[in-house]
Input
Amino acid sequence: MIDAVWGWPPPVLDPAGPYADSVTLLAWVLFGLGVFVSGVVVVALWIAVKGSPGLRAKLGGEHAVWIGGIAFPAVVLVALLVWGLLLTASLTRPISGEEMRVRVTGEMWWFRVAYLDPAGNTEMLDANEIHIPVGHPVVLELESADVIHNFWVPNLSGKMDMIPGRTNLLRIQADRPGQFGGVCAEYCGGPHALMGFVVIAHEPEAWNQWVAARRARLQAASSPPAGAAARGRALFMDEGCAGCHRVAGTQANGLAGPDLTHVGSRATLGAGILPNHRGTMMGWIGDSQSIKPGNRMPRYDMLSAEEIEAIAIWLETQR
Output
């Protein structure tokens, strides 16, 4: 898993954008306050055990209880609550209509990704990988198809729950190009610990090229394959893969599993847990249950190694 993506596991105190900056600042203030309070408690314990009779009497007096036990916690906690809400309010403010919009849906145990136009209509589909331009805020519309999940890219923003029947908003922004790991941060059963994704931030020119390539792929059907790829495509359609997976430009229109239209260009497989190359692709197709026990893709151990490789070769061409 460590080798799967650069930036994995995701660092929690290395902000790469303004929304993560505010969360990181709040975290450091809470850590500092925790250290201060722990120090006060240690001093109070020392006085209670080793202090002079006068100090011990003051520690147990009415003034110490009112100040240290009631006034200080009440004032500090209320101040932290107000400051924290003001500091992080920008993460969840309503859509203004100018930001890029992406709908991310938590599934057992992967992430469905839909790029939206300004009116909220779906333009492109993907899975377990989100591409964004550097320096621009992106509004995520977070939903769930089954149980409660949680979306968290520590480098780019705070955490947000993904709840069935509800849409939660969360803003992310990257101020530098790179690949940022994310995880589901709410236990959602089964292989929850193996439910990750990647956010890839592009410089403006690379971003325009990425968008143009994706739109061109949608406007033209994929080229007819030849050789092993042709056999792999036929096997994909005949062995039931097309019933669960969609590949734009083909007869595969399944929606139960991740969209595979661009699977050949993804950094990872299995929702962020494997590097994407032919070997891992073949392993996943043949027996994903041994890699991610409990996921919803059945074993295909009835296929020969040559047949599995042919499917992997065809999927490599889907970019």
In short: The mean pLDDT is 92. The two ends are 23 Å apart (CA to CA). The longest strand covers residues 100-107.
